[in-house]
Design goal:
single chain; 393 residues; alpha/beta; Rossmann fold; Heat Shock Protein 90; 6-stranded mixed beta sheet; elongated
Amino acid sequence: MSTTKLKNNRNTREDSFNILIVDDDELVMESFDRVFSAEENGFSVDKTTDARHAIDLIEKRVYDLVITDLVMPEIDGIQVLRKVKKANPDTEVILITAYSSSSSILDAMYFGASNYITKPIDPAELRLHVRKAINRRKSILERDRKIAELERLSYTLAHDFKASLLSIRGFARILLNDYSDKLNGDGQFLLYRINANVSTMESMIEGLLEYAKIGKLEINPENINTAKLINKITENFKPILKENHIDLIIEKQLPDVYFYRSGLLTIFANLIDNAIKYARYDAESYIKIGVSKDRVNSNANQLLFYIEDNGIGIPQKNLKLVFDIFQRCEKIMNKNGYGMGLAIVKKVLGSMNCSIHAESELGEKTTFYFTLPKKNPVTTNTPQNDGSQEITI
C-alpha cells in the first residue's frame, strides 16, 4: 500500500478542497503528482493505492472530489463510488478506466459518478475535469451556505415576531377584561378578531420555528422497529380515527429502518394527521401504511414506504406545491392547519438523503411514497425506548 498527502499553502474550508485519488498503479499516481503540483486552486490531496484504505479515509473525512480507478483488486471503483455517495451524496466522483466499457460506465453514472477519463491519462483533460468538478462543488457549498443563512434568519425573525405577538395578545386581553364594558358591540367584536388572528399567527410562527429547527438537530440514526413506532404513534390518533369513522390499515411485518427516532416520529405523525385532516365523510374512509413491493426503487439501500388514503384528493397541478411551506389546496382552506406538516416531512427526509412524492387527483385517493434507509446490519444500537418523544404535527 502507498499513501501520500499533497498540500499547498491554503488549507481553510473557504478556499481549500479535499481530493482523494485511488489507483493501484504507482505510475498513474506519479502522473497525478505532476498535474496537481501545477495546480494553484487550494487543493488538499490524499492519495492511496489501496482501495480498502480509501474506504477508511472516506469514513473519516469529507471529500469534495474523489478520483478512483474503475478496476482494482478486491474492491472496485463502483464500490468506492457507492461508499462515497453514502457518506456524502454531494461529493463529486470521477472514474478512471483503462478500457472503453459502456456497461461499466453506465453503472458508474447510475450510482452517481460525475464523469470518467480513460488511460493513458491526458493531463490537460484531467485538469479540465477536475476544474469542472470543483466548480460544481463550489456551487453546492455556496447553495448550502445560503440555505443555512436563511434558516438562521428565519429562526431569529420567528422568535422576534412571536415576542411581538405575545405583547399584542396581552394588550388585547387587558382591553377585553378591563374595558369591554366601555366598548360597543363592534369594538368587542374587533378585539375578539384581533385575538383570533394573533392565535393564527402564533401557530404559523410555531410551524416556522419547527421547520427551521430541523436543520439544527443532531442526527443520531439507529435501527428502529418501524411497526412498534407506528403502533405507538397511532395510539394518539385512535380517538379521532374512531370519531371520524376512518379505518387504519397497517401492513404486517413492516421492516426495520435506519433513521433518527425523533425524525421518524415526525414523518409518520404528520402524514397520518394529514390523511385524517383531509378525509372524506361521504364514503368509508381508510388510511393504509406499508412498503411498496410493485415499484422499482433506484436506491438499493432504501425502502419505499407509502401512506395511502381515500380522502378528497389533491389536484395534479398542486402535487409538488403541497411540500412547500404554507401551501394548501384552495378546496380545503376551511380545514385546520397552516400548510407546514408536509414541508416538515420533506425536510426531515432530506436530512437523511431520502425523498417523498405524492400521487393523486382531486376527488381520488392520495398516496405519499417516501424512501427510508434499510436496517443497518453492522450497527449496534443502544436499547430502544418506548418511542414517547415529542411528536411534531
